[in-house]
Protein 1
Amino acid sequence: MSDDSIPRRDFLKGAGAAGTAAATALSGAVSAPAQAQTAPPAKEASAPAPEALLTLTATEAAFLSAAYDSLIPADKLSPSGTDCGLVIFIDRQLAGAWGGGARLYRGGPFVQGKREQGYQLSLTPREFFAAGIKAANEWSRKTYGKDFDRLATAEREAALKAMDEGKAQFSEINAKQFFEMLLASAMEGFFADPIYGGNRDKVSWRMVGYPGLPAAYAAKALEYRGKKVVLEPQSIADFS
């Protein structure tokens, strides 16, 4: 990426990992007798059907795909954010109890709080993402003449920087606060257990050398003390 682009590691450094999921593939082989007839050519495997979205609209999914792919571009470290399943991850989170604000106090009064006080809005996370994406696209159309997902790569990066620095002017929603939640969702989806939809094929765990469920490796602590740990990552699904 160019010098003025968003450094991938600047967005991902410090993120932790947690979680799990892995699909098990079964394969069988049939031995052919001597001088058997030539087997018919194997059919090409069809691409897996895309997972259905639970709550995101097409416009919201398009915005998030573009944003996640800007934050986590495909490179030698990993596939793009979209290919790692980040849109599926946030869709499931927003469709669940967290997205509905199940553990948030929402009785008011709602006043402008300090940064260290965390989330202080009356909106649920689902409502906040919807309002933020709508405001981001409105600002993008005023600034660049088109929705965020239709911008060129360099324009997307410039737009995200403007949000991060608080220079983008959103209606009703604070642009920097929206960017911070967007970034947090990218890191969570990228490093979380694959069972939640992101970190597809455990790509981020392999990238950083994370072996998976910590409790599963207590017996290996002495064996690997002072040595590099090279293990196939294990997730929740691997133990269920």
Protein 2
Amino acid sequence: MTERALAESIDALLPQTQCTKCGYAGCMPYARAIAAGEADINRCPPGGAAGVRKLAALLARSAKPLDPACGAEQRRTLAYIDETSCIGCTLCIQACPVDAIVGAAKLMHTVIVELCTGCDLCVPPCPVDCIDMLPLPGAQAPWTRGMADAARARFQFRRLRLERERNERARRLARKAQEKSGQPMPDAKKAVILAAIERAKARMAGVAARNTDNLPPRVQAGIAVVGARRAAAKKR
């Protein structure tokens, strides 16, 4: 089996929460790292002990306890937004890896419960602390392979959509710069496309800091502002 095929087989066993708690930018980057021998099989808290056993069986390895540095196995949770406190900042929408939050700027946001993977990436950016991760009611069905496959598809679609939007934005800026300068820009379109390809390769290959460090720059900036406000409030 090739390394690429092995990574796909590993990815098929991961829960597809895209929470980045493993230290990678999503489930597939983690799967690639395992296939390449760069990561261990016990770094996925959402998959839990059962997930480790599945990976061990696939790779003919011995199962081992979850790495505590990545977090602990826990009951499945879902994000809930206190809609009376939501200010419509859109930071949670930008942070959600599977487009499970809907809303618009300065308008109330809400979580589509059926799509939420429980990754908790939406919690840190919220400037008014109106998002809670609540345990799934015991009577509700657990996370299934079908749900994981659907979450993977949404994650991939979102990445393609964001990449398309970035490319379109770059092309608009290039056209505006050309119109402003009045000078021809040879190979400008080619340069934009090549830059986009390099960014995509870097994201797919790179290791990301777990959880909040893998958020878009605008979201990280929002977190920094909120952190500064909270630090200032504590000093008062």
